[in-house]
Each structure stands twice: as C-alpha cells, then as structure tokens.
Amino acid sequence: MSRCLWSALLGATLLLTGQPARATGDYAVVDEFGQSRYRVNPQAIFQERTLPPGQVTFDPQELLIVLINTRRYFREQGERDVVIQRPGLLGGLGVQVADVTRTLDFMIDVLLADLTEAQPIRLQNSEFLRQHFRVLGWRAYHPQGNPSPQLRLTKYAVFRHPGRRQPQGEYVHALYSINEEWAAEKFYQKYTKQEVLSGVYAPGRPEAAKVTPLAYLTRAGLEEALLQGTILIQFPDRTTRYFNVDRHNGIAFVRGVPPWEQQRYWYFREVDAIRGYGSEIGNKIAIRPGVTFAGDVWNVGLGRIVVLERAPGQLMLGAIADTGGAFLPNLAQLDYLAGIFDGRQEFFAYNRRLPEYTQAYVLVKKD
C-alpha cells in the first residue's frame, strides 16, 4: 500500500475501526481510502457451516512461513496499521482481531510440533479442522446482485522477465523508485501512467532527479510488473532481483479499462522476497506461492485462514496475506498466488488444474 493511501486511511479512522454489526445491513463496506461504498448484512455473506470431508493439501513449511510472517505483522504493526485493527465483516459473527491472531498462533504451534516431530500434519486432516475450528461458509456478494454460493478464484504469479540496467533496444520502460528526499512533496501524484510512459522522468526533464530507474523492461514486461505487483528480473549477467510495488499516484484502478490504458501507476523498490500486504514497503509481509491468497483486507481482513474446495474431496488451505487493486472492495473473489513462471503459457497451463469458482470457508479457532 502506498503512503498516500496510508494517509487517507489514517484520516478515515472512524470508518476503519468499525465495530461488529448490530443489525441487518449494518456493516459499511469501505474502499482503500476508507470511504463507505455500500452496506451489507455480514450474516448474509458468512454463515456457520460444516467443513466437507476430504484431503487438505498445502506445503506445511511454506504455510508455516506465511503464518509466522503474518503473525509478526500483527505484533509489530498492530498499533499503527488501522486497517488490521478492524474486525471487518466477520465482526458481525463475533470474530474479533484477537480471534484471528489466536487462530494464527494455534496453527503455528501445531505445524511446528508436527514438523519437529516428523509426524502427520494435523492441519491436513479435515476432521481435525472440524474439531478445533469454527467453519464459516463464504457466499460471494455482488453489490448489484444477490449473494452466490461460490467465490471466483483468480490466480496471480511472479513472472521472470529479462531486463537491463540501462535502456537498450526494446528495453526502454523503467521501473522507477521514488527518491526519499522528494517523497514528502508527493510530486508523483501529479502524473498519470500515460504521462510517465511519455517521458516525464526522462533524462534532462525537470522531474528526472526525483526518481531512480531500477531496471528497464519491455512494455509487456512493465505491464506485467504493474499488474502482478512483483516481478523477478533476470539481467544479462544471469543475476536476478525481485522488485515490488511501493507507492502509486493515488489514481484508482478502473475496472473494465484495459490494463495498458489505465492511469494508475506504481513505483517500485527492490526487495529480497515476494512481498504481500503492508502499510509501506519496509514492512510488507514475505509470502510464498501455494499458501497465499490476495483478498479484501479492508473488509474481510488480513490473516484470515481460508479453505477452498479444489474438487470433490480435495481441499486447499492458505492465508489472506496480500491484496491488490481488484479488492477495493471485493467480497466475491480471492486471488491465489500460484508461483513463479517464465511466461503466461506456463502460468495458464498450471491454472487449468484449479477451479475458476469454488466454495470457500474461513477457519476461526474455537474457544
């Protein structure tokens, strides 16, 4: 999340520290700026359910990493990040932030014990999950229509793209980082994506000294980085580096507008891992493929544990530890971090193994 959005959210504290719903339609669904968009009844979206039987699949070590990193974020940023202070929609069913962190703590303890003792992973046993967790079925909610039983499951990835340290040939589109000595002026909010692409930061231009080009990509590579939020660039010397979105120009992503024509523009930073949600680049959660979902952290919440039905008798489990422009707000979709791929053909082949729509459940540790 950018600092400009962070300021907007701080200014909307009354909305962002919402309390559990008290009556039908009592919950105000907010966007990334803390503005109320519509009101809903939380119990029309989340309802007590029984988890179906089946094999629960995930990589235990990868899940443990994401759970630990997400729990650390609550511990270190909980008093400063007003987004994660609010119970969100689940507050309408009595689920508070303390229940979320207690769920994370329990799952971390169970995984650590099972991995240390080299015993069967209990969290992969659906009967164990039914015994120890409340199971809340999630019905997809669309503001213009009725709730539907299944969520849309989209998939995102980190793509490995070739890049250059200096402009060369078709590699002329820079990933820009904002120079901190100029950040307070918020100059970057004046320029649309199309203006940046037209050369507002080109050498010799007045604004050139306010940013640093981190790497140069093709236009397709740049669009992939802006869309996915993270990119792994391979340079001619075979070294690779991760780059993650940092701050944007404050222009909202417009649904229905082709990505190349959007006005929203992101600035990047080099990072040491795939990074998910965070109030600023320095505290974003390190996430792993296969066990991470991007979702609506403003209204559904960070660190919520989700189980999806991949197929009859096959369940997949992960944590909401990321977000993005598609979730501002969005109560009908989750985005699954599928992995690191060399191109879209490989990515699409992998995605064919996963459903497009799925029944989803949220797990909360029982008292």
- What fraction, in percent, of the residue positions are helical? 10-25%
Rg calculated over all Cα atoms: 21 Å
Total count of helical runs of at least 4 residues: 9
Approximate strand percentage: 25-35%
Supply the CATH class of the largest domain: Mainly Beta
Do you know the CATH topology of the largest domain? Barwin-like endoglucanases
C-alpha geometry:
globular
Order of helices and strands: HHEEEEHHHEEEHHEHEEEEEEEHEE
Give average pLDDT, whole number.
Answer: 92
> Which regions contain 5 or more consecutive residues with pLDDT less than 50?
1-24
Sheet with the most strands?
A: 13 strands, mixed
The counted number of beta strands is 17
Number of domains: 2
What is the name of the CATH superfamily of the largest domain?
Answer: RlpA-like domain
Task: Give the class from helix and strand content and strand pairing.
Answer: alpha+beta
Provide a descriptive summary of the structure in words:
The protein has two domains: 3-156 and 284-365, Beta Barrel (Barwin-like endoglucanases), CATH 2.40.40; 158-282, Ribosomal Protein L25, Chain P. Helices cover 23% and strands 28% of the residues. It has nine helices and 17 strands. Strands 3, 4, 5, 6, 9, 10, 11, 12, 13, 14, 15, 16 and 17 form a 13-stranded mixed β-sheet that branches. A hairpin with a 2-residue loop joins strand 13 (305-311) and strand 14 (314-322). Helix 3 (60-77) runs antiparallel to helix 4 (97-116).
